[in-house]
Amino acid sequence: MADGSNPAFDAELTDAVDARGAGAKLRSLGKINPRLAPQLARTMLAKTRDNDSAPAFAAYSEAKGFEFTSAWAANNIPFVAPLLRDFMAKRPAGGRKVRYMEIGAYEGRNLAFMDWMFPDRLDVTVIDPWFDEGLNPEEKYHAVEPRFHRNMARTTFGQVATHKGFSTYELPKMLQAGETFDLIYVDGSHTALAVMIDLCCCASLLEVGGMMVLDDYWHDISEIGGPGVKQAVDHFHAAFGRYFEVAAVYRQVALVKTAEIPR
Question: Which terms does the record give in the GO molecular function aspect (predicted)?
Answer without folding.
Answer: methyltransferase activity
